[in-house]
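Quick one:
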Amino acid sequence: MDSDDRQELERLLGRIGLGDRQAFSDLFDRAGPKLFALCLRVLKDRSEAQDALQDSFVKVWRNAGRFEVTDHHPMSWLVTIARNTAIDRLRSRKRHEDIEDHAHYLAGSGAGPETAAVAASELARIRACLAELPDDRRDAVRRAYLEGDSYADLAAHFGIPLNTVRTWLRRGLTTLRECMSR
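Output:
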C-alpha cells in the first residue's frame, strides 16, 4: 500500500474513533477482503473466518479512538487485530474440544459404564449452562477455570479493568451454579 492508502486508513480510523459509521463502512470495504483472507488462512473454515472478521471489526470500532499515528502502517494495526482474533478463535475451538476431554475427570479413573454415563450427562449439563453465558463471559470462565489464566491475563486479553474481570467471573459462576441446580 502506498502513502495515499496509509493516509486514507489513518483518516478513516480517526473518523471511526469519533463514531463515524460511514468511515467504518469504508474501512470495511478497503481492508475487509485482506483481513478475511488472513482469518481464513488461520482458521481454515470460511464460516469461522467470517465470524473472526466480524469480531475484528467490532474491536476496531471499539478501539479506533485509541489508534495513534506512528511510523507503522495502520494496516499493520488492523492485521494484528484480525490475526489475534483468529488465533483466539482457534484456541477457543481447541478449548471447546478439550472440554470433552475433561469428562474423564468427572468420572474418575477406572470408572465403569454407569459412572461414565453419569459423567457424560453432567458434562452435557455443564456445556448447556456455559452456553447460557454471553460469549466473552463464557470465554473468561473457560480461560480462568480450565486453563488457569489469572485475572491480570484475562483483563489484558479482553481489554477490561481487573475489577470487571472479577465481576464477570463471580456472576458467571453464580449463573452456572443456578443453572446446574435446576
